[in-house]
Amino acid sequence: MSPARFTIKTAAPGDCHLVDFIHWLNKTQRLQLDSYAAVHRWSVQNREAFWHTCLDFTGIETDAPAHARTLKPGQQIWLDQWFPEHQLNYAGNLLRFRDDKTALIFSDEHNNRQSLSYAELYQQVSQLQRWLLAQGVIAGDRVAGFAANRIETVVAMLASASIGAIWSSCSPDFGVGGILDRFTQIEPTVLFAVSSHCYAGRINRHQAVLEKLMAGLPSLRQVVLLPDLYEAGADDPVGHSDVVHWRDALAGELAAEMTFAALPFAHPLFIMYSSGTTGVPKCIVHSAGGTLLQHRKEHHLHLNLQRDDVLFYFTTCGWMMWNWLVSGLASGATLVLYDGSPFHPKPSILFDLAEDTGVTIFGTSAKYLSAAEKAGVQPQQTHALPHLHTLLSTGSPLNAEGFDYVYQQVKGDISLQSISGGTDIISCFVLGSPLLPVYRGEIQCAGLGMDVKVYNQAGKPVSQEKGELVCQQSFPSMPTGFWQDPEHEKYQAAYFARFDNIWTHGDYAEQTAHGGWIIYGRSDTVLNPGGVRIGTAEIYRQVEQLAQVLESVAVGQEWEGDVRIVLFVRLQADATLDDELIGTIKLSIRNGASPRHVPAVIRQVTDIPRTLNGKIAEIAVRETLHGRPVNNRDALANPDALKEFEA
Ligand SMILES: CC(=O)CC(=O)O
């Protein structure tokens, strides 16, 4: 077992934005902050001063009258208005750098490599902006992407944002039903689309999907087809007069200087979607100012992102980590985009890419790390990653053994930042800090300005005790609302139903003795056998240590007036769930967690249902097990996997 506390490379003096920020605060605000805990405390107790200084310190360009207010409080925290008199443009802030440094590198399973400098990126955005304006796109229009994680998608999003149009994207692995569930609600006028896409060596052609999208979205005026990477010459599948090719949309003359629409801080920038596993996905609207400020805070102060960093995040553009990644342009860093399976054509493909492109910050999911470990990926021995200094993990809780894997098999002297928040806030509640040590299994800290606590069942803040993760005060990247929810009814029901005027995030969590954080799973899937509350991640942590188990899902089944834990496991190809393995699983849960955690029933399945963003669909399994309908199968990447659970 690894030590509880890892030694990490800390930023050299003068090289750490957070240290500079603290010095600057101490000087300008006459403070004596001397630790992360102190600056966090100050930031939530003085949140107007904090967010204002954060806006200035991170170099966000805005227009505002002298003495403009930072916060106009509302009756309820979701009605608070941040920076009500400030105007800005998200794209303008991301395109501050216009030099020859590489802005974007793209790669895929075939090692198709493309790159764009900051100057070229600015040019392409400018050309596409002119085309969008020529189509009559105006601020507030919705522009959608059925798009891969490619350079063109970033250009399309920035060009839309430069006008004030609202960007919303789904990745090409979403089924037609799932995409229409999302896009019919927001009525886009322009769609950027890929006509083919490659995943795990398979090329999927999307003509039929595109036909259905065009038929199902009468609001569309134009569809722009991205260049076809996989079947050259076959990129005109639809044959409609309102379908144009990327190259034609980009053919306009270059303007000397692009104009960025100056828009209110709260102007909508992105529409994101809830997973949709409990009904039609909710359309979550995020503001330009809130997103930008929160991402600048996380990148600049928490991640210490520098201009010479090469930032990679393994994501599709249907997940909020894509939006988070792209905001890294505001730091002038090089961003690496990858589209495809993380294990094809070989399990080490992502680390090959990291080695080739000199990645300094490698972002991924806990699920990827666990699968990479099982697949025998050991970059420490096989790859030269001299520049890699940080690894980020999110998507589900990274357990203590995941920390061991990173420090033992990936790189021994990096900063491992487990981060957590989500689509709802397009950012993090808890994440990393360059000033704090990394404790095995723990997220380092709560974000600056984020008044995060754990509440017990009675709604009282607790420490070193499991409970609901909440945020007691508003912050700029709260959604401005849900689309078509003018009275905020759905919005309130989603986050404010549990505790009055307090954001309840739906995570079952604990604040540790070190001031760190552990997430035990989603609170709506907490298991409750005999009245004892157990987070599903507590069980996964034990089970997934076993070499035979690839992944698992645990649910609570109503049984004889109580609840019993039922565990489903997906095993390695050469393993079967015999009595011996059942015994081993039970023993490891009993020893590693407690007798209370031991499942009453363990079953083998061949597949486990996942949401489109790759998260295990625990609620869908639970509902199926009880013979109740699963509301929205289109929200699942592999709905057929539920059949086995019906049986
Ligand atoms: C930052 C996150 O929390 C991302 C996610 O898990 O959706």
Automatic annotation (TrEMBL):
<keyword id="KW-0436">Ligase</keyword>
<dbReference type="InterPro" id="IPR042099">
    <property type="entry name" value="ANL_N_sf"/>
</dbReference>
<dbReference type="InterPro" id="IPR020845">
    <property type="entry name" value="AMP-binding_CS"/>
</dbReference>
<dbReference type="GO" id="GO:0005524">
    <property type="term" value="F:ATP binding"/>
</dbReference>
<dbReference type="GO" id="GO:0006629">
    <property type="term" value="P:lipid metabolic process"/>
</dbReference>
<feature type="domain" description="AMP-dependent synthetase/ligase">
    <location>
        <begin position="99"/>
        <end position="473"/>
    </location>
</feature>
<comment type="similarity">
    <text>Belongs to the ATP-dependent AMP-binding enzyme family.</text>
</comment>
<keyword id="KW-0067">ATP-binding</keyword>
<dbReference type="InterPro" id="IPR005914">
    <property type="entry name" value="Acac_CoA_synth"/>
</dbReference>
<dbReference type="InterPro" id="IPR045851">
    <property type="entry name" value="AMP-bd_C_sf"/>
</dbReference>
<protein>
    <submittedName>
        <fullName>Acetoacetate-CoA ligase</fullName>
    </submittedName>
</protein>
<keyword id="KW-0547">Nucleotide-binding</keyword>
<dbReference type="InterPro" id="IPR000873">
    <property type="entry name" value="AMP-dep_synth/lig_dom"/>
</dbReference>
<dbReference type="GO" id="GO:0030729">
    <property type="term" value="F:acetoacetate-CoA ligase activity"/>
</dbReference>
<dbReference type="Pfam" id="PF00501">
    <property type="entry name" value="AMP-binding"/>
</dbReference>
